[in-house]
Fold:
Amino acid sequence: MVVATAALCTFLWGSAVPAVKVGYELFGIVPTDTPSLLLFAGARFVAAGMLLLGYALLTGRTIVLDGRGMAQVSLLGLVSTAIQYLFYYIGLAHSTGVKVSIVTSTSTFFSVLLAHFIYSNDRLTLRRSLGCLLGFAGVVVVNLAGAGLDLSFTLLGEGFIIIAALMFSAAGIYGKRVSRQVDPIVMTGWQLGLGGAILVGAGLGMDGHFGRFELDSALLLAYLAVVSAAAFTLWSVLMKHNPVGSVAIFNTLIPVFGVLLSGLVLGESVFEWKNLAALVLVSAGIWMVTAGRDGGVRQ
Structure:
């Protein structure tokens, strides 16, 4: 059950990569229009937060939190939603869906490294360190340009995606702690809603706007909202009840789904040698990080 749930989360996140890039076209947003990118991201997460808080009310959950709880979910929303997706949306606008899908997998290795310093039973070993190096080698390979060893890497593109991956990992570990006191659905609803509101405010404050808003763009926004609501909630539940490293392993499926769906939806090249080599390196790295670990995912 846990494996299926984690796979579903990663499929949803993988599908969001081409969906967001399609959204740029449907909403008439150009990659250099940062305020409109933030508005797009914020609208997605505000809608997702409202969906979850509405569901929480319908199922009898209390969405009113005390001061400490509100402070925790506010911090989570700032880091996990506002800051993470500030970098993610800008990075995605300056890179390809295939490359973003693979570079995003660095969140797995960030989670392993952070867990080493936080949890006494989740320490780094030589094997796990080598696995991390293999994973980052995959990130380097996917950024190789067609000519020799020139690296096609930009701060606004792949650099921002790596920063977003770090924010995702840090927020996941912090969210695991918060979910001990706050229902995961309520926590995720506030996290997405508050973080999304920050993004909307920032976008509008800098004159962000949608070039067009019609039925097709509205339906895409609704899909992305559902993706966020479902994936983040299920992931929070998994993180609450399982070791960080045992859940983080499944992030390796995000580049697999993202690459395949980007190729299908965006018509991007999937079977270039560098993409296939990167997927092999990332997968091998994650296998080395997680194989033979003490304790596993609860079934």
Summary: The first helix runs from residue 2 to 26. Confidence is low (pLDDT under 50) at residues 293-299. DSSP finds twelve helices and no strands in the chain.
